[in-house]
Design a protein that fits this description.
By secondary structure, this protein is of the alpha+beta class. The protein has 9 helices and 17 strands. It has helices spanning 25-37, 83-98, 107-114, 116-125, 139-149, 171-183, 241-253, 282-288, 292-302, and strands at 6-7, 10-11, 13-18, 40-45, 50-51, 59-60, 71-74, 103-104, 133-136, 152-155, 166-168, 188-192, 200-207, 210-218, 233-236, 258-266, 269-276. The structure holds adenosine-5'-diphosphate and magnesium ion (MG). Adenosine-5'-diphosphate binds next to strand 10, strand 12, strand 16 and strand 17.
Length: 306
């Protein structure tokens, strides 16, 4: 047992939470890291975890008590959820936090980062440069915005890996797309398109008070998206002091303990495109050789329940 794994003589027990059929690659990396340290690790889908009031236990599964866990690595509460599921799951982790169990990322931060509009709104209020953005359910207003912006991006409000985002220059093409989006009960999240210097953007990976690694991401030919999942090529990036400070600042503003910050270098300075509260790091690890898992686990342990 390593000294790192003890908090005031108590053996740590870390819960990793995922959603879906099985833990994904990033979860496996965290599981391996905890295994190497000899930390007791419980891995559960969010659906199996129950919270209770005035029961003998506050948190449990049909087989296990979870009251003695030291901390949670919360990788996902799920992507497409009903209101009911969303509320239950956020309340569950809020309850854990109230009982003194650190949740990484904290549920409030994760919730803010999940909502692309809310996160940019908060950042903008802190004078962080973000693209011009609207959120609306009114087709005419959205059409007018696309017309005014000239080149716009229509994105899913909740989304990742670049899937579902479209770049539009013709307001009538945008009109047809947006009408369809509305007909499915979704909202219109429309943003100014920021041309990228050298067709690349930056992913900065923040843990606690540091940027542990960053990389340039180059959009594939004929694409404007720089997600690794969209085929972007990557290269390590030596972040300037200004961008390092920016990445750490936005992470803190959104109450995140770690994050993946997407930054576009525009003609007149940087823009923050989004802040990911449960970033993947396969591409980053390949590009930079830095494995975030030990940093994430060490950070959680530093805040583990005493
Ligand atoms: N306003 C924008 N201007 C230019 N490129 C954008 C803009 N918004 C998104 N992109 C490109 O699309 C990618 C995906 O968008 P992003 O907002 O990061 O959503 P996600 O990665 O969650 O799907 C970005 O990494 C960037 O390359
Ligand atoms: Mg992104």
């Amino acid at each position: 047992m390593s000294i790192n794994d003890l908090v005031q003589g108590k053996k740590l027990k870390v819960l990793i939470v995922y959603e879906g059929k099985r833990p994904n690659w990033a979860c496996m990396e965290l599981i391996n890291e905890l295994k190497v340290r000899g930390t007791t690790t419980i891995v559960l889908p969010v659906t199996r975890i129950t919270a209770a009031i005035n029961f003998e236990k506050a948190f449990f599964t049909s087989k296990l008590s979870l009251d003695d866990i030291s901390g949670v690595l919360l990788r996902s509460i799920g992507l497409i959820l009903t209101d009911d599921q969303f509320m239950r799951r956020t309340s569950l982790f809020k309850h854990m936090e109230k009982n003194g169990i650190p949740v990484m990322n904290p549920i409030d931060g994760l919730r803010k980062a999940r909502d692309k509009y809310m996160s940019l709104c908060i950042l903008s209020r802190h004078k962080i440069p973000v693209p011009q953005t609207i959120i609306t359910e009114d087709l005419v207003t959205a059409y007018q915005a696309v017309t005014r912006l000239k080149v716009a991006v229509i994105k899913p409000l909740i989304g990742s890996r670049g899937f579902g985002s479209v770049k539009v220059e013709d307001p009538d093409v945008a009109f047809r797309i947006m009408k369809t989006i509305l007909s499915f009960g979704q909202t219109l999240y429309v943003q100014e398109y920021i041309p990228k210097k050298n067709d690349r953007d930056i992913r900065a990976f923040v843990v606690g008070d540091s940027v542990i690694a960053s990389m340039y991401r180059y959009a594939p030919v004929n694409s404007w998206k720089t997600n690794v999942a969209q085929g972007a090529k990557t290269e390590p990036c030596k972040l300037t002091d200004e961008l390092t400070e920016l990445a750490i600042k936005v992470t803190k503003i959104l109450n995140l303990w770690y994050s993946g910050v997407d930054i576009v270098e525009g003609e007149n300075g940087p823009f923050v495109l989004e802040v990911n509260g449960a970033p993947d790091w396969r591409g980053l690890r390949e590009a930079t050789g830095v494995n975030p898992a030990p940093f994430i686990v060490s950070y959680l342990i530093s805040r583990a329940k005493k």
